[in-house]
Amino acid sequence: MTEDMIAKMEGKRFIRGAYYMVTQLLTRAYHQGIHVSSEEIVRLRKVAIEAQKKKQSIIFLPCHRSHVDYVSLAIICYRLGLTLPVVVAGDNLNFPLVGPFLQSAAAMWIRRSFGDDQLYTTLVQAYMDTLLQQGFNFECFVEGTRSRTGKLLQPKFGILGFLLDSVLSGRVKDAIICPVSTQYDKVIEVNSYVSELLGQPKQKENLMDFLSASSILSLRLGRVDVRFHEPWSLRSFIDDQMASYTKMPPQMPTEPNGKDTTRLRLLRTLGFKVLAEINEVSVVMPTALIGTILLTLRGRGVGKSELVRRVDWLCARVKSRGGRVAHFAGLPTETVVERGLEVLGPELVGVVYGLVEPTFYAVDRFQLSFYRNMTIHLFVSEAIVSASLYGRVKLGGGLEHQRMPFEELRDQVLFLSQLFRGEFIFPTDGLEANLSKTLQGLEQDKVIHIVRNQQDPSQIEFVELSEEERDQGRENYDFYCFMIWPFIEASWLGAVSLMALTPPSGQGEDMWLDMKKVQDMAQLLGKTLYHQGDLSYFEAVNKETLKNAYQRFEEEGILLVAKSKDARIPTTVRLAPDWVPPRAPSSNHLLPSGRLWAFAEHISHSRREGKNRRDGNTVRTRVLGLVELVAESLWEHARPAASPESKPGAYEKVKQRRPRRAIGEGKARL
Q: Domains, the chain, ranges and CATH?
């Protein structure tokens, strides 16, 4: 057990040879090299010298988009003369030849799931305590797995909890936290990500796949940018948080099973603080700029001169939001765009010649969305406000019809914010403060016009598009809407797919469906709706986004989920009784009414208007007809609720969460 887990350092000769080999391979793939900030490197070296004197570990917490992440960080540490960090890695990578090589280069293998194995949990904690006590540098990925979508995932608290416990318990005096952002012009594994997101099963890592991927190393994938946030003391973080908790009024424990709520609060704060700081130092690459522009166009394509202008415009938008753009030593924007187009290649971006000017268009929108999502964290607040206002803007007519009362806007903004709580990393100021700040910024940018109460200017009465924004063709406003619309589509698809969980006539209500089959059904329904014109974005069938939507539905009490302690027994799901849609008494068909349909309609208020969706009754009939078709095969595999007498302890207690008014009734709770 310990032999496979413990990282091995095979001496300077091995490390020197490994460094030479991976550097040669990596620079062949990323021909423009690994780029860092000289200021950040100087600061990191000073911190490392002080940490070494105090025998403290530096805990690197990078974002995770590729297996190249830990390779590039190891190369940087070697060049700086820092101790190579022990890397926490899943044992799925521990296959012949590659596994022993990585373990000899400081990989620490752990199981993907610990289950109820207390001995293994204790062993991992003891080993990590030993590493931190001895001052070994450490590296783990706060997201837990590689992001298949291009944006940051929600934090995972497994390994992070071990690190926190080491210092919180006093077994380790202190450790230095260093959030790290790694950005790519192009990610090597993105093709496999697309296959997984479209429903193909993830292939288990093996030597043959590793060797066959070696042809990728001859490609020209641009460059890698690694940025280091200012390191900080984990002990100081804990002390500051504990001091703030003592100033707060006492609260009742929120965990019914008696867990230490203070530890959980510390852990969540730590995880989201690290993610926020990763976003803070992340740079936007040229390929992300190009991908974002091409996926936020109203037309089919864009000329080269307009593409260059819009890249300059987007760079200004990024910087105005406090973001960073990759530095290219003063090269003109046109040259940077040409390099980005070369890296993306004709498989992602096509070009039409023989016109007045060459015109570029998105070939593979699904794969380009990976690069667009690298910028969305900068604009998510503006995007949600814009999409909320769209409920009035899409009505058309006179300006007075497109003006939205502030309370209506606020309710929709908070509704969408709660809906996407598990999808994006929001600012930590709170929803009300963030809304106020976002409206102020949009008004300063002359995207919206705010009508205030004449007697009390602090009171907002209406919000509408500004005349300046209308005169320039809604360039800013449309951009924000296009950023968020695919995610709104995915949530709407998830809500509509839940209609298929309505038990057929004569079927007992206490019947459960396989969660994986339900989510596969949702993807199939989404693909059908897309090709039939009722879904605007193919990215909406993204498996990860649908999974996040289902997680939110569970949290809101719409879904009841039964998870088995036995990994061989699949997770099952059914609708909560008060969310089951009604059926027509005569035809037994699903009716577009009830809480679930109203919930889907609430999401639909912010969906992009499409030609096929203007006839509401026709669309309802067509969509619900497709839902009933996919439901037929789904209910063939329904199973009754597990009997506690027949299988004692087989299922965990089903948690029916208290529904939140934010989702169920359209009113957000802060």
A: 2-278 (3.40.1130.10), 284-376 (1.10.10), 378-478 (1.10.10.10), 482-664 (no CATH)
